[in-house]
Amino acid sequence: MTRSSFPQRRLRDAQPFVRYAAAAVICVATNLAAQEAVVRAAPSAPLMVSIIIGTGVGFLVKHVIDKTWTFREPYITPAAEAWRITLSGLFSVLTTVIFWGFELGFYAIWGTDFAKYAGAVLGLGIGYVVKYMLDRRMVFCEATV
């Protein structure tokens, strides 16, 4: 059997959870890169400034990727889109509490940037699993996947 005879599974054809996980990795990197950019641009700014900016950037990127690629949700009306963004935002607040709790908790315990970012990655991972379950059931329920 030749290599070309194996079915070619691509990420775009994967199950929604696999695409969600891939998008989460992209958004974690985007979030942390935005935080680091703020820290470098304004080193005297309070820690929460970088965390809030990183979280906002991550939310926007994640919502666009989830709508267009992860769940392949069709556009319906402006009101429906506003409702989806609002609901997704509310769920993001819940999962952000998890994320920030780990990030700030690790920083408070160990006091290093490495600990802060390790806590962020762990908190984001847990938060994204919770958010996937909420998004799949309540936000992107008309998805075409």
Automatic annotation (TrEMBL):
**What topology does it adopt in the membrane?**
Multi-pass membrane protein
Q: Which UniProt keywords apply?
A: Membrane, Transmembrane, Transmembrane helix
Which GO terms of type biological process are on file? polysaccharide biosynthetic process
The residue ranges of the GtrA/DPMS transmembrane domain are 19-140
**InterPro entries (UniProt xref):** GtrA_DPMS_TM
Tell me which stretches of the chain form a coiled coil.
none
Give TM regions: 44-61, 82-102, 114-134
Q: What is the annotated localization of this protein?
A: Membrane
One cellular component term (GO) for this entry is: membrane
The organism sits in which domain of life?
Answer: Bacteria
- Name used for this protein in its record: Flippase GtrA (Transmembrane translocase of bactoprenol-linked glucose)
